[in-house]
Amino acid sequence: QVQLVESGGGLVKPGGSLRLSCAASGFTFSDYYMSWIRQAPGKGLEWVSYISSSGSTIYYADSVKGRFTISRDNAKNSLYLQMNSLRAEDTAVYYCARDGYGDYGGDYWGQGTLVTVSS
Amino acid sequence: QSALTQPRSVSGSPGQSVTISCTGTSSDVGGYNYVSWYQQHPGKAPKLMIYDVSKRPSGVPDRFSGSKSGNTASLTISGLQAEDEADYYCCSYAGSYNVVFGGGTKLTVL
Fold first, then answer.
1. B4-53: per-residue pLDDT in tens?
2. Cβ contact (<8 Å) for A61 and B52?
């Protein structure tokens, strides 16, 4: 069965960095576009970034452009999000999601990993 | 890119039907048939309920249906059940390498 497991979240000071990982299993990872989507505590969903199956096409939300970098390692069935220059407003649960239907959404989601940016 | 507009809350009694709207612009909802809907129970990850405006993934009950007219997409849930009580989010491709979510709607089953 399809599984997505995020890791790497934690407490970091403003201006700091963190690298999130998403381990995929149960499907051919290299065939699918993938996304990171976040949810601030008590708030709605916010799309963060999107990467094509080969990694050649990448999108970012304006709110993270220039600070976050999405990448993938198809040999390791893993998706990553490098987050630099973190701000308090980046505090959220970060989900990875598989785009199974080519509509920029997510047909499978991980359980999420919490990132807290605070001094 | 502005978030899509959803009502903050809707409610209905068991067995009734409810419709949740999602209003965008011609640059997102109106411009593409890439609208999806997600159900999220407290403390859980979102679950895909509708993709490509009106298609249902395998395993989603046919009580859930989606549609679009102009710049507004809608999710209709018929035959409401207690387990349908959750937050619902719409999502649309917005062109220019952007994806946008709605603010979310809390569905209460009375």
1. 999 999 999 999 999 999 999 999 999 999 999 999 999 999 999 999 99
2. no
Q: What residue type is assigned to position A103 of the chain?
A: D
Q: Chain A: residue nearest B8 by CA? A: A44
> Do residues B50 and B66 make contact, with C-beta atoms less than 8 angstroms apart?
yes
Burial B43-80 (b: 16+ CB within 10 A, else e): eebbbbbbbbbbebbeebeeebbbebeebbbbbebeeb
| pLDDT tens-digit readout, B64-81 | 999 999 999 999 999 999
- Which chain B residues have any C-beta within 8 angstroms of a chain A C-beta? 1, 3, 34-36, 38, 40, 45-48, 51-52, 55, 57, 89, 91, 93, 97-104
- Bin A103: left if φ > 0, else alpha if -120 < ψ < 50, else beta: alpha
Sign of CA dihedral B28, B32, B37, B38: negative
Please give the Cα distance from B67 to A1 (Å, whole number).
30
Element (H, E) at B88: strand B86-93
Contact call for B1 and A44, based on CB within 8 A = no
